[in-house]
Every structure is written in structure tokens, then in C-alpha cells.
Automatic annotation (TrEMBL):
<dbReference type="InterPro" id="IPR043917">
    <property type="entry name" value="DUF5753"/>
</dbReference>
<dbReference type="Pfam" id="PF19054">
    <property type="entry name" value="DUF5753"/>
</dbReference>
<protein>
    <recommendedName>
        <fullName>DUF5753 domain-containing protein</fullName>
    </recommendedName>
</protein>
<feature type="domain" description="DUF5753">
    <location>
        <begin position="63"/>
        <end position="106"/>
    </location>
</feature>
Length: 112
């Protein structure tokens, strides 16, 4: 379906749809619902809700409270350094600094 045909179907313009498609304009809730009715079969609205958390504001406040009351926040990324280049010593250092509450004896891979 062309943008012109879709625009006629949902009472929008080709330019507006093109701008949204290219990421230079935002869509309104009305337009999102119209697009979903026309071509999304309910998937667009579900995806929008999942990605934005729209309608689920409570969890945002819960996360903010947890962050505010935390004594430390750790973020882990599996590709800190490509795994095929990691040495055993490098992995131990990541664990040591990533989990400072572990004693040296509790570190994974440590011979006892």
C-alpha cells in the first residue's frame, strides 16, 4: 500500500506519514490507533505500549524509588571486552569489581 492510499484510508496526508516513517515527526495517539486499525491488526498498539510503558506509569515510580534508595547500582554488559579475547585473569577482575561483596574465596573459579 502506498503512503497516498494509506493516507486516504486513515484521513492523513502522505507528507505526515512520510515524516513519521522517517522519524522527523511524532505520531499522535489518534493516528497510531488509525494506523493500527488500518494495517496493524492490534499489533501496533501492543508494541507501542510495550516499548513506551504507556498506561503503566506505576512501575516507573517504583523503579525511581528503588534507584533513590539504593546504596549501589551495578550495570553489566556481556561485551565489556570480547569474550574470545578475555583471559582468566581479566574475567576474575571483572567479577571482583562487579561483585565487591564477594570474598576472594567466594569468587567463581577460585580454587579452594
Amino acid at each position: 500500500m502506498t503512503l497516498d492510499a494509506l493516507g486516504r484510508r486513515i484521513e492523513s496526508s502522505r507528507t505526515q506519514l512520510s515524516d513519521i516513517e522517517r522519524g522527523v515527526a511524532k505520531s499522535s495517539a489518534r493516528l497510531r490507533h488509525a494506523l493500527d486499525d488500518a494495517i496493524g491488526h492490534g499489533r501496533l498498539n501492543r508494541l507501542w505500549d510495550d516499548l513506551t510503558g504507556e498506561g503503566k506509569e506505576a512501575w516507573r515510580y517504583e523503579v525511581a524509588e528503588l534507584v533513590d534508595s539504593a546504596t549501589a547500582i551495578y550495570e553489566y554488559q556481556i561485551m565489556v571486552f570480547p569474550s574470545h579475547l578475555q583471559t582468566e585473569d581479566y574475567a576474575r577482575v571483572l567479577v571482583r569489581y562487579g561483585a565487591p561483596w564477594l570474598s576472594r574465596e567466594e569468587e567463581p573459579g577460585r580454587d579452594t
